[in-house]
Specification:
The complex is a heterodimer. Chain A is an alpha+beta fold. Chain A folds into three domains: about 5-105, Rossmann fold; about 140-200, ATP-grasp fold, A domain (Dna Ligase, domain 1); about 205-450, D-amino Acid Aminotransferase, Chain A, domain 1, CATH 3.30.470. Helices cover about 35% and strands about 25% of the residues of chain A. Chain A has helices spanning about 10-25, 40-45, 65-75, 90-95, 105-115, 115-125, 140-150, 175-190, 250-265, 295-305, 310-315, 395-410, 420-425, 430, 440-450, and strands at about 5, 25-35, 45-50, 75-80, 100, 155-165, 165-170, 195-200, 205-215, 220-235, 235-240, 270-280, 285-290, 335-340, 350-355, 355-360, 365-370, 375, 385-390, 410. In chain A, helix 4 (about 90-95) packs antiparallel against helix 5 (about 105-115), helix 7 crosses helix 8 (about 175-190) and helix 12 runs antiparallel to helix 13 (about 420-425). Chain B folds into two domains: about 5-35, no CATH class; about 75-160, OB fold (Dihydrolipoamide Acetyltransferase, E2P) (Beta Barrel). In chain B, about 10% of the residues lie in helices and about 30% in strands. Chain B contains one helix and ten strands; from the N terminus they run H-E-E-E-E-E-E-E-E-E-E. In chain B, strands 3-10-8-5 form a four-stranded antiparallel beta sheet, with no helix packed on it. In chain B, strands 7-6-4-9 form a four-stranded antiparallel beta sheet, with no helix packed on it. Chain B has a two-stranded antiparallel ribbon with strand order 1-2. Chain B is globular. The relative contact order of chain B is 0.21. Classes of the chains: A alpha+beta, B mainly beta. At the A-B interface, helix 2, strand 3 and helix 3 of A face strand 9 of B.
Chain lengths: ~450, ~160
């Protein structure tokens, strides 16, 4: 087992890793930028090293500074958290070269899954269902029409060089394909400089369902059930829950088995998440794999009673998984609300100093945060200041509990999205579990109508 | 040497924050000088964790800046007419190019802009830290072999 773990991250996840290390009796090293000098992760770690000025690229993304910090403190392992360098094959490789254990998968798995197109090919090869579509770029309109017909309508034309929702066009009938293809190529050329377009089946308003997997270095892989993450705005998750109200035992077993096979096919080690699109007819397709611990891992911990970060550390130290698939039980229901320092209506970030702070407690409540009274929320980093989780025996109990928590949580001095979460919980579709990735789009206009005089 | 080699060399130099590099190969001489990417910052808790770091139960541990570092004096009072030169990187500080040589500079020495003041070793690479101002070395804040973090005080130089 390691003696000293350096946490290459900040904020609430740095604290999360420190908690796991403390419980395991491991020493901790925090790294921080000048903007985080007073941050809690710096205060609670056994040692801390300033690695640079505030900008990410100079600090939390600065590999030489981080490795050097590990060297001068004698850290023998690095936990990358999520975001930042958690999916950097380069960091994983350098750790290997410097005999520092990277707490996560190996560089090959990171790189393979980080390349979305290669990942999809690898998954398809492993028999994992992927969104049907063209194998690569479409050469001409005839090919476009042919593939679209094979895939089945509606389809979506996507610019290869695009991303973030740009350069996409939905086509609902065969007759529209040729013209749409020409237009898509022209748009792609104009916007991205490359006219390459490919086609995929358009899964309309799917649910975003992800499966948590955990694997050790001996080839044991298990899944810990799903998380429902459809409540998103511009591909940013706002609220997550486990289990999904749309998934029963049978579908969970099938998707879980698929996720385990996917992870095993790339010799995956450590915690990982396979993201799927779940269509209304129950079919599901691989979207991508996240080769790190995720923000929303806590809801899985609540319904399974497992500590995923400790498990990551055990696995990285060469130990086998501490449990097998038959030991995984999903009990009760957990919801997580990401508390962001932002305006609840306009989503504009709201940095500043927290003047008054009170966090809820009581049965079934978990708060992962670095926020406290007097805490500086700086403009340099992510706006998420904490994760509020509520656990209940049923989904309705979890909702009622979450509502209670949001009503009494106090964060003054900055704006937060607490009012937004309260409105989401009150939404009849949400209460009924009728959510998919178009929820926030439908939800927001409703809210504006309610707010209008 | 082709463009791919050159790109790779430049990438490595940037990543390692190496400011000067010279290579001669196959009749081609390459010399790269770059400004160091990062700039100064803060005091570090020395690698031997300070004995007074254990907080009282129920109290918030003090910010690292307030904990008196074991080694160098904190930047509290840069000498009245001296400029503090701070560490631009994380690593191990050395006063001389190797254990058998004289230190690069001593207190009282006059230094020129660009003159090498010390070496900070990071990831097995020896980074030469150059003076950005000319003047007289008034104080040396660190000892050879000491760990430094971004922003740690290294030298106080009186501009002249």
């Amino acid at each position: 087992m390691f003696k000293k773990v350096l946490i290459a991250n900040r904020g609430e996840i740095a604290l999360r890793v420190i908690w796991a290390c403390k419980e395991l009796g491991l020493k901790t090293v925090a790294v921080y930028s000048e903007a985080d000098a007073d941050s809690l992760h710096v205060r609670f770690a056994d040692e801390a090293v300033c690695i640079g000025p505030p900008r990410n690229i100079d600090s939390y993304l600065n590999i030489p500074a981080i490795i050097s910090a590990a060297e001068i403190t004698g850290a023998d392992a690095i936990h990358p958290g999520y975001g930042f360098l958690s999916e950097s094959g380069y960091l994983a490789e350098i750790c290997e070269a410097c005999s520092i254990k990277f707490i996560g998968p190996g560089p090959q798995a990171i790189r393979l899954m980080g390349d979305k197109s290669r990942a999809k090919k690898a998954m398809a090869k492993a028999g994992v269902p992927v969104v049907p579509g063209s194998q690569g770029v479409l050469e001409d309109e005839q090919k476009a029409v042919r593939v679209a017909k094979e895939v089945g309508f509606p389809v979506i034309l996507k610019a290869s060089a695009g991303g973030g929702g740009r350069g996409m066009r939905v086509v609902r009938e065969a007759a529209e394909v040729a013209a749409a293809f020409r237009a898509a190529q022209a748009e792609a050329q104009a916007a991205f400089g490359v006219p390459d377009v490919y086609v995929e089946k358009y899964v309309q308003s799917p649910r975003h369902i992800e499966i948590q997997v955990m694997a050790d270095a001996r080839g044991n892989v298990v899944h810990l059930g799903e998380r429902e993450c459809s409540v998103q705005r511009r591909h940013q998750k706002i609220l997550e829950e486990a289990p999904s109200p749309a998934i029963g035992e049978k579908l969970r077993r099938r998707m879980g088995r698929t996720a385990v096979e996917a992870a095993a096919s790339v010799q995956y080690v450590s915690a990982g998440t396979i993201e799927f699109l779940l269509d209304k007819d129950g079919s599901y397709y691989f979207m991508e794999m996240n080769t790190r611990i995720q923000v929303e891992h806590g809801v899985t911990e609540l319904v399974t009673g497992r500590d995923l970060v400790k498990e990551q550390i055990h696995v990285a130290a060469g130990e086998p998984l501490s449990f097998s698939q038959k030991d995984v039980d999903i009990r009760g229901h957990a919801i997580e609300c990401r508390i962001n320092a932002e305006d609840p209506v306009t989503f504009v970030p709201s940095p500043g100093t927290i003047q008054h702070y009170f966090q809820p407690g009581g049965p079934g409540v978990r708060v992962d945060t670095f926020a406290h009274e007097g805490c500086e929320i700086s403009p340099y980093y992510d706006s998420m200041i904490g994760k509020l989780m509520a656990y209940g025996r049923t989904r309705s109990e979890a909702i009622a509990r979450m509502r209670r928590c949001l009503e009494v949580m106090v964060v003054e001095g900055i704006r937060t999205n607490i009012p937004l979460h309260l409105r989401i919980l009150d939404d009849p579709d949400f209460a009924a579990g009728r959510i998919d990735t178009s929820f926030m789009e439908r939800f927001m206009p409703k809210r504006k109508a309610a707010a209008a005089p | 040497m082709d463009i791919a080699d050159l790109k790779e060399i430049l990438r490595i130099l940037e990543e390692q924050d190496i400011t000067e590099f010279e290579l001669e190969q196959d009749g081609v001489k390459l010399r790269v000088c770059r400004a160091s990417s990062s700039a100064p910052a803060r005091p570090l808790v020395s690698a031997a964790a300070p004995a007074d770091a254990a907080p009282l139960a129920g109290t918030l541990p003090a910010p690292q800046a307030a904990a008196a570092p074991a080694g160098p004096a904190p930047e509290a009072a840069p000498a009245a007419n001296g400029t503090l030169i701070k560490s631009p990187i994380v690593g191990t500080f050395y006063r001389s190019p190797d254990p058998n040589s004289q230190p690069f500079v001593a207190v009282g020495d006059r230094v020129k802009v660009g003159q090498v003041l010390c070496i900070i070793e990071a990831m097995k690479l020896m980074n030469e830290i150059e003076a950005e101002i000319a003047g007289e070395v008034m104080k040396i804040h660190v000892e050879s072999g000491q760990a430094v973090q971004y922003g740690d005080p290294l030298f106080t130089v009186r501009p002249a």
